[in-house]
Amino acid sequence: MGSGGTGEAGSGLGAAVRRRRRTLDLTLAAVAERSGLSVPFLSQIENERARPSMRSLQRVADALETTAVDLLAAADARTRPVDVVRADEPAGLEPASGVRPLVRGFHDLHALEFTGTHEADREFVHPGGELMYVADGAVEVEAEGKTLRLGPGDTVYLAGGVRHRWRTVGQGARVVLVAVGDR
Predict the structure, then answer these.
(1) Which domains does the chain have, with CATH numbers?
(2) 75: which of 7, 43, 48, 124 is 20 to 30 A away, CA to CA?
């Protein structure tokens, strides 16, 4: 396995969460109140004793006025001109979350692979464009007042600023999202 960055002092997803919380001068209790998560769970995340689901990480990110993608990027912010992310590398998230970063660190783009079920319980809007590719299964994307159904091999491009949400339809979906970086 390649380096995921969690073995070094001050690196890893927990350290990224802690750095962001301290930058905002927030206590764990304040983040717990904002996110609806417990102080012990947040402490376990920061101390690398628990891996959050993507949903929990998004709640933490909202509480910290950032995005889950930026927290994942900050977990291993080393810039590599060439970087291979192996399929079996730990992502810093709960293994059952079905989300895997495909690019580490801060770059001009972000890429995530989603497998399994994803609910349309959250609206997204990004300053840069986003491309969604459906490798397997089916998804529905709500954007610009329309619901688009995508199947295997289909893609949709969403320009920056377009509010959208998406969900899987049925079982066995695998979706790749690539977005222009927010930096």
Answers:
(1) 1-98 (1.10.260.40), 108-180 (2.60.120.10)
(2) 124
